[in-house]
């Protein structure tokens, strides 16, 4: 998958369907965490103001264009992207590709009760998606380190982190090394949407 540079951030030029399938194949083969950022214009601007955050984005495996602003920016620069890939839609795509024997999902973030409700909704819509645990994003399961320790014990293959930017990308960058066989993705307000 080729990448398009927008304000020093390499954006993966792909489609939602192609990207999610490729990530699932990579997950089979690879023994290291796969870090994905779904970047809207706010995330890209945040990276301009905060070099540490920019470093997290540049060090992640893939940054995809979540937001029409990013897609339009790429077009204006003469390097058009194939399509917008919204975090929420990518989350649904991964759930739809779930194999109950192989995949284990973890939902981290949102107000107390929201991840749980989102997990129940996901289970209804995608019966093959095994959700092995949830944590809220406000300290119900302790601080970020304690949550990471809890999650690591459950050995998930997909960790969706809904703490908003920049917290979710910071948490992923800080704890990725604990997860040698997982897709880790910041999903912003997706649990709020999924839980209705
Ligand atoms: N959130 C959280 N812990 C925090 C701050 C935010 O769990 O300390 C959650 C919040 O409840 C919401 C999500 O993070 O579900 C961020 O949503 P927002 O719509 O701001 O995300 P965006 O996609 O705009 O980054």
What would you note in describing this structure?
By secondary structure, the chain is of the alpha/beta class. It has a single domain (3-195), classed as 3-Layer(aba) Sandwich (Rossmann fold). 45% of the residues lie in helices and 19% in strands. The protein has nine helices and eight strands. It has helices at 16-29, 41-49, 51-59, 68-76, 87-96, 114-125, 144-154, 167-175, 190-195; strands spanning 3-6, 9-12, 34-39, 62-65, 105-109, 131-135, 158-162, 183-186. The strands form two sheets. Strands 4-3-8-7-5-6 form a six-stranded parallel β-sheet, sandwiched between helices. A two-stranded antiparallel sheet has the order 1-2. Strand 7, helix 8 (167-175) and strand 8 (183-186) form a beta-alpha-beta unit. Helix 1 (16-29) crosses helix 5 and helix 2 packs across helix 3 (51-59). It is globular. The termini are far apart. The relative contact order is 0.18. The model has no long low-confidence stretch (mean pLDDT 97). The site of uridine-5'-diphosphate has 14 residues, from helix 9. Residues 109-111, 137-138, 162-165, 167, 188-189, 191-192 line the site of uridine-5'-diphosphate. Catalyzes the conversion of GlcNAc-PP-undecaprenol into ManNAc-GlcNAc-PP-undecaprenol, the first committed lipid intermediate in the de novo synthesis of teichoic acid. Its EC number is 2.4.1.187.
